[in-house]
Write a structure and sequence with these properties.
The chain has 283 residues and is α/β, with parallel strands linked by helices. It contains ten helices and seven strands. It is 42% helix and 11% strand. Bound molecules: zinc ion.
């Protein structure tokens, strides 16, 4: 037993739709969403504290003005991304979370190699053409980071070598991808545990939103960072806790409700209301 039987794992390269799918599955069924992108600074700090040389090199590289940065080899880019190092850190994060309800964990660092035996996992895999097109859309007018395309190649090879379970997402909409993931995990989701009370679901949504706030604060606290974190706008999950809600609310970090989370007001999309009732899963 790995102690992580309560985790549903979703891997895949940048641009595969992991975050959207994981948060929708979590919201529909009252599960906890572990969003890897909200832990990158915490993971970098852990790597630095452990004396990881690639993490230290990345900090120097990042602090260097773009025009003066040395060109990186693919191997160096990958090492400095902490792609491999972040796998065990993610396992540690998940072990530290409450066992109930089930957790949907997603991230590029989730690879067949780093998972405990018997893990329930799926990889969302776009072709390289579709991955590039999706990332171009997301990053325009900026160029797609080379690292993201490199990770696409590496993860494709890792998933194929391990003959791991995958969903090819090229021709799927987000709704269809959610449905495909739900079919794969249907028995486990049905067995639970799930949060069925609105208040508990709101706590899970707040957990995910608070992770976004913490990530932003950590990013703006970097020695080389500029700007005001309070004015930085991010998308937060609507905390109405209705299983059918897919709304996000764009807020500056400074406008996000203060601590303690248990008593601060919910973040709500226009027209959405909190419910105090027992909730049924979305169908
Ligand atoms: Zn809502």
């Amino acid at each position: 037993m790995s102690g992580l039987e309560n985790v549903l794992w979703i891997g895949g390269p940048p641009g595969s739709g992991k975050s959207t799918v994981a948060q929708r599955v979590a919201r529909r069924h009252g599960l906890r969403w572990y969003n890897s992108d909200a832990h990158t600074w915490a993971h970098r700090d852990r790597a630095l504290a452990a004396g990881n040389p690639a993490a230290a090199r990345w900090e120097v590289w990042r602090a260097t003005p773009p025009a003066e940065r040395p060109a990186l080899t693919a191997a160096e880019m990958l090492a400095m991304s902490l792609h491999v190092d972040r796998g065990p850190m993610t396992v540690d994060d998940l072990r530290a979370l409450p066992k109930s309800p089930l957790i949907v964990a997603e991230g590029t660092q989730i690879t067949p190699r780093m998972l405990p035996p018997g893990s329930q996992a799926v990889w969302l895999m776009p072709s390289s053409r579709v991955q590039r097109a999706r990332l171009e859309e997301r990053h325009k007018p900026l160029a797609v980071p080379e690292l993201y395309l490199l990770l696409g190649q590496i993860i494709t090879a890792e998933v194929d070598d391990a003959n791991a379970r995958k969903i090819v997402v090229d021709d799927l909409t987000p709704v269809e991808t959610v449905a495909a993931v739900e079919r794969l995990f249907a028995d486990t989701i049905a067995a639970g545990p799930r949060a069925t009370i609105a208040q508990e679901r709101r706590q899970l949504l707040r957990y995910a939103n608070r992770a976004t706030v913490a990530q932003m604060e950590a990013g703006f606290a970097r020695p080389w960072a500029t700007g005001d974190v309070a004015a930085a706008v991010r998308s937060f999950l609507c905390e109405c806790a209705q299983p059918t809600c897919v709304a996000v609310v764009d807020l500056p970090i400074g406008a996000f409700p203060g601590l303690p989370d248990a008593t601060s007001p919910p973040v709500l999309a226009a027209g959405h209301q909190v419910s105090g009732d027992r909730l049924l899963d979305a169908r």
